[in-house]
Structures are given as structure tokens and as C-alpha cells.
Amino acid sequence: MEKKSEDQASIQSHLYSLFVPQEILNSFSITSIEEKDEDLFIYLVEKEDFIPDNSFDSVQNGYMNPIELNSFPVSGKRCFLLLTRRKWKIRGSSGSKSYTNTYDFALEGTKATKLFGSFLKEFGL
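Predicted structure:
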């Protein structure tokens, strides 16, 4: 019975990954999906091996607040991608300086993925 459940979870994860731009999936992994009324929330966390500066020995130092992006609607539901980035610090340092990766996933001036934002602008929305 457990195998079937794992297979279903894998299929569901794969299906939802079709709604997330590949450029995001290269750096983030889907951790959960939540459906609420007319909304679909896809939660993603930055992959652990994306350390921002490999020139020093670093250790993870928590997470940043999620970035919310709008994406194409799915089955009549608004689709939101919530991206959580990791924070890093130099191993052994006592300072409060953290390092993070920066990404350019949104169309400038919007909270929409580049492709969805371009689609909306094309139709003057």
C-alpha cells in the first residue's frame, strides 16, 4: 500500500512541476502544494547545494522570507509560487552577516514569472 502512495506523490509532484518554469526548478525543489478555493500555492525551497560564494567554508544560517510570484492559472485557479531562499554564513564566524543567492525570475516591475508577465503585457493586462 505504501508503494502506491509514494507513486501517487511522485506523479503529483511531477504534474505540478509542469506549472513551474524550468529556470526555477533548476534552483528550487517543490516541497508542498496547497489548494484553497480559487488559489493554488506551490511552495519551493532553494536546493541545499546552491551556496552563494564557494570561496569560503560556509554553513546554512536559516531561511529568507518567501518570495511570491504569480504564474499561469491552473484549472481556473490562480497559481502562486512561493520561493524560499536559504541564508548562509562563514563557518565559525560570530558576525550577523549572511549571504544569499539572488535570482531574476520575475518580469521587471511585476510579481509575475517572466513568461506569465510577458503574456499579460502582450494583452495589455
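Summary: Residues 2-17 form the longest helix (16 residues).
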